[in-house]
């Protein structure tokens, strides 16, 4: 009776160790890391107000994540494969949680310091306490970036090693869905925290004279970081229970039969790894750099990512300007028309590759054709545009005459030169003359009445010489034609998002399978490193370029189209090279798995067969010969 109980217990442990349990845990880790990243980006304005720091310091804080990530990602991708990968991912999640906790710490330190400073009675003293606390946020963000490094390369390589080759695309598609869910939760969390006052737990909020729409308002930024810290630590727990290696998916029942063989192989591998843990790093790097398909794929990814960054970064402002809708409405529509088709596309792309057991050459052709179709459809965006708003100093002069877009020396006029206005600030107002202005200051307004979205600016010298002219927040209204064109725009967005997401999984599988299995994790890490370093549009963060891109549809649509068009050149060469050679990943196909299964079955049969003297004599004779 003892034996069956033992078998059931073993089966229970084995079920927990299956690749699908690991996939679920890794997807949750993807959700947690993307949640933290989106929340951080959404809270930058609140952090800027809390610590009273400059925009350049905010940029440094935001970029500190990449510093921590890029410093370690290549080495973690290599050395992590030599160690216990699930354990490394679990530690990474804990480190991310620690980084998020450290980012929330200044809130408590500032409160304690202000109470302990007996001589701190004025605003200048409190400002001095705040001035250095942003360093904690920056260091926490560096630690968060460091903790994220093992999750993607080690997680994907673990799935690739132990999942069936035909199931791997579907699993990668599910992981990609985690990257979509995380930002959604992050945005909701950021909205919730931004509407809570930063010191709500220590002051009476009924006595507050400001609202979340006021520029002096500071939201409870620290609350979300504590939540992110808890989520990251919770997602780390399952990884500490996964083994270093799993039986190949579909071969779990043969574990007991082949256990001794695998133990012998594992010991041999462990000895080899101890010998070559640093010795084969440079050969692996050389092999990747000499892999023409892999290097062309990196070039393709960099060009493509730069195009996507422009589209995603400026889409809300561009649509707000083009179609005259509020930012909140535009962001809601973007989420509604892009996220569901991306969801569906990732899953269908993975299912198609699983169902038809698509070879990598076919996957490359599928990805190329789908991506090219979506690229050609995107040119219809040029037809779905409205005329630019007349904006004084940008598209028209202050007298209402049309002028070339954005000429630096005519942004200021005689009516606003005495106001010392910032010429690169985009906070538009609509004058009662039907002309929009870059800001209330540039409209020459002297005072304001009301709060929030109901604020009205009065005595605006640039709008009317009488001094009784006024302006309201936002751009001037557009006609009903623009609303119809906006509907067509989002229908096209839905179609192109679906086609684009269908191409993602086949394309990514080409990247995974074009490198040798032992180089896979390092290859993923190097790819991530290159795309992050060369895929950042730093020049686009300048406000001048922002205004230029938002107002010139030829630049907003044309520059990404040019970059994506260039990306098809390396894609074409990848297809050409794949015709002539066998990819390393193709050798790990179902044929290899079938051969291994047959070999295992043959070994099992040999255990139960009694060798006759004749057979032994024959073998001795063959050995001598």
Automatic annotation (TrEMBL):
The chain crosses the membrane at residues 21-40, 60-80, 87-109, 133-158, 170-198, 218-242, 293-315, 330-352, 364-384, 488-510, 555-575. SUPFAM superfamilies: Kazal-type serine protease inhibitors, MFS general substrate transporter. GO terms for molecular function: bile acid transmembrane transporter activity; sodium-independent organic anion transmembrane transporter activity. Pfam families: Kazal_2, OATP. Keywords: Cell membrane, Disulfide bond, Ion transport, Membrane, Transmembrane, Transmembrane helix, Transport. It is a multi-pass membrane protein. Residues 606-625 are annotated as: Disordered. InterPro entries: Kazal_dom, Kazal_dom_sf, MFS_dom, MFS_trans_sf, OATP. GO terms for biological process: monoatomic ion transport; sodium-independent organic anion transport. Residues 409-464 form the Kazal-like domain. Belongs to the organo anion transporter (TC 2.A.60) family. NCBIfam families: oat. This is Solute carrier organic anion transporter family member. It comes from Peromyscus maniculatus bairdii.
């Amino acid at each position: 009776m003892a034996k069956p109980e033992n078998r059931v217990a073993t089966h229970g442990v084995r079920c927990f160790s299956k690749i699908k349990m690991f996939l679920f845990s890794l997807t949750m880790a993807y959700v947690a890391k993307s949640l933290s990243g989106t929340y951080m980006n959404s809270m930058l304005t609140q952090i800027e107000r809390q610590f009273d720091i400059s925009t350049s310091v905010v940029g440094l804080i935001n970029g500190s994540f990449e510093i921590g990530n890029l410093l370690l990602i290549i080495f973690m991708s290599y050395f992590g494969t030599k160690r216990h990968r699930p354990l490394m991912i679990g530690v990474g999640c804990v480190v991310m949680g620690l980084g998020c906790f450290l980012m929330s710490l200044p809130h408590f330190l500032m409160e304690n310091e202000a109470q302990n400073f007996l001589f701190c009675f004025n605003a200048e003293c409190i400002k001095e306490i705040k001035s250095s606390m942003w360093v904690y946020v920056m260091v926490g963000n560096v630690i968060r970036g460091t903790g994220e490094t093992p999750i993607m390369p080690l997680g994907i390589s673990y799935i690739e090693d132990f999942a069936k080759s035909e199931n791997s695309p579907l699993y990668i598609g599910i992981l990609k869905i985690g990257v979509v869910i995380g930002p959604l939760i992050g945005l909701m969390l950021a909205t919730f925290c931004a509407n809570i006052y930063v010191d709500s737990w220590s002051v009476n909020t009924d006595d507050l004279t400001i609202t979340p729409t006021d520029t002096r308002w500071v939201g409870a930024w620290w609350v979300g970081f504590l939540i992110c810290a808890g989520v990251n630590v919770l997602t780390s727990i399952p990884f500490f229970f996964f083994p270093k290696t799993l039986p190949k998916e579909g071969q779990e029942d043969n574990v007991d039969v082949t256990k001794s063989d695998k133990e012998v192989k594992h010991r041999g591998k462990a000895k080899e790894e101890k010998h070559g843990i640093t010795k084969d790093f440079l050969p692996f790097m050389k092999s990747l750099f000499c892999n023409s398909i892999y290097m062309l794929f990196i070039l393709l990814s960099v060009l493509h990512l730069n195009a996507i960054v422009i589209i995603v970064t400026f889409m809300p402002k561009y649509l707000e300007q083009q179609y005259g809708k509020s930012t909140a409405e535009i962001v809601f529509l973007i989420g509604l028309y892009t996220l569901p088709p991306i969801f569906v596309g990732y899953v269908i792309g993975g299912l198609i590759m699983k169902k038809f057991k698509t070879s990598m050459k076919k996957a490359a052709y599928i990805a190329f054709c789908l991506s090219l179709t979506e690229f050609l459809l995107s040119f219809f965006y040029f037809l779905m545009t409205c005329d630019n708003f007349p904006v004084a100093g940008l598209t028209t002069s202050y007298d209402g005459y049309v002028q070339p877009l954005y000429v630096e020396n005519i942004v200021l006029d005689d009516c606003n030169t005495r106001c010392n206005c910032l010429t690169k600030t985009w906070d538009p107002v609509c004058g009662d003359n039907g002309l929009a202005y870059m800001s209330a200051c540039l409209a020459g307004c002297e005072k304001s009445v009301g709060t929030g979205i109901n604020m009205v600016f009065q005595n605006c010298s640039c709008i009317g010489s009488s001094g009784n002219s006024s302006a309201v927040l936002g751009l001037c209204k557009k006609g009903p034609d623009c609303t119809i064109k906006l509907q067509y725009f989002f229908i096209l967005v839905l179609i192109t998002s679906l086609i684009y997401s269908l191409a993602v999984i086949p394309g990514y599988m080409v990247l995974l399978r074009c490198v040798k299995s032992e180089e896979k994790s390092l290859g993923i890490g190097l790819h991530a490193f290159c795309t992050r370093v060369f895929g950042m549009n730093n020049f686009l963060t300048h406000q001048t370029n922002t205004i230029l891109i938002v107002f010139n549809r030829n630049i907003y649509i044309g520059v990404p189209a040019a970059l994506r068009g260039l990306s098809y050149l390396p894609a074409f060469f990848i297809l050409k090279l794949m015709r002539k050679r066998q990819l390393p990943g193709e050798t790990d196909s179902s044929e290899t798995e079938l051969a291994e299964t047959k070999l295992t079955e043959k070994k099992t049969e040999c255990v139960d067969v009694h060798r006759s003297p004749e057979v032994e004599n024959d073998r001795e004779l063959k050995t001598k010969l």
